[in-house]
Write a structure and sequence with these properties.
The protein is an all-alpha fold and 180 residues long. The protein is 70% helix and 0% strand.
């Protein structure tokens, strides 16, 4: 069955088609949920909620643009919804923002370790970092998605980068001292 036919069948509440759609996209969408969740269990909840929203709103998908992109937006918004009503964001003066570049030499740290330390960032920093760096949203888009101002988005990104840079430097120093 083609993807378009699968989508059309989901629009008429065909549970078999919904199951197929779930099988087709759940692993990709779960990876997104992991990026925006505090832990594995919360990611599972977010995936479940995202699919409930997808099946409820699939009628709104008009075959314009990427279906996978549409699914991704719903999944990200579902995960972010948990944070919107919480006070996880600090309002920070834009003048205090300092850009931090993170230098990572090839093969110096594993991608798994990098993802692990990103996951350990405080919510407000992890969300902005993921949206900006990993998913390519602008600060204006992030501000709208998280109900914060642009300056807060920029400062949270800068702070996330500072934390990650320090964590990587500490890791490298510890690794270097073990070699001596």
């Amino acid at each position: 069955m083609s993807l378009n036919q699968l989508i059309e069948n989901c629009k008429i509440d065909d549970t078999k088609a919904q199951g197929e759609l779930y099988k087709l996209f759940s692993s990709k969408l779960f990876a997104i949920c992991l990026k925006y969740s505090r832990n594995y269990a919360e990611a599972e909840d977010n995936l479940q909620d995202a699919f409930l929203t997808i099946f409820k709103k699939i009628e709104q998908y008009k075959s314009k643009g990427s279906f996978e992109g549409w699914l991704k937006r719903i999944t990200i918004n579902t995960a972010l919804q948990r944070y919107r009503n919480e006070k996880v964001f600090d309002i920070i003066n834009e003048n205090t923002i300092e850009e931090v570049e993170i230098e990572i030499e090839e093969d110096s740290i594993s991608i798994d370790y990098l993802l692990q330390i990103i996951q350990q960032l405080p919510d407000r920093y992890r969300l902005v970092f993921n949206l900006y760096v990993l998913d390519g949203y602008s600060h204006k888009e992030i501000a709208n998605m998280l109900n914060i101002n642009i300056g807060t988005s920029k400062s949270n990104l800068a702070r996330a980068r500072q934390i990650l840079k320090q964590t990587i430097e500490d890791y490298k120093a510890a690794e270097h001292s073990q070699l001596l």
